[in-house]
Amino acid sequence: MNIFRLFGDLSHLAAIAILLLKIWKTRSCAGVSGKTQLLFAVCFITRYIDLFLHFVSLYNTEKVMKLIYISASVFTCYLIFFKFKATYDGNHDSMRAEFLIVPAAGLACLINTKFDAIEILWTFSIYLEAVAILPQLFLISKTGEAETITSHYLFAQGSYRALYILNWIYRYHYESHVDTIAIVAGVVQTILYCDFFYLYITKVVKGQKIVLPA
Amino acid sequence: MIRNKQHDEL
């Protein structure tokens, strides 16, 4: 474990907590893409499937973190699609999730480190995570604005994988550990946030709201 | 089912 990975996981936890707080406090999921949250839930379940296959004692933080990720993302989906369904902006959350799931699944069958069920699921989860934020970015481009709290969520969510890139550089240099699939997907994932990062740093940090040119 | 030790990250 290195500082980059630690802060990456903390940033990820922060993103999940910020979104939950936003929805719970405002009792509304306006401006939040339900599809992105569904895709993240699928990512966690397919990536941590080993938790279900053979029960492991919760002695170490890694197992606990995985359970937190899975339960928090499922709970977020529950809030969006059930509890606060009336505030879900389905009209603007219109990116076809199938266009992300099918290519990720196909690619996972073609490019993977080992052709076995667990490995294919893990690879699918990595590829899907790289593009899972697209419906959320698409929704913001459709509505033309993002609530400040949602911008903080996106900044924490984008920073998590950016910090993981630093973690991979660190591990390559000090542990000569390389996980090519995770690295390539992580770079793609972080690149997708670039224009948002620019808007966040030039606007939100100065207290302005993100409003996209219509 | 041996978990792939290669993926030791979240």
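qc> The first strand of chain A starts at residue 145 and ends at 146.
qc> done
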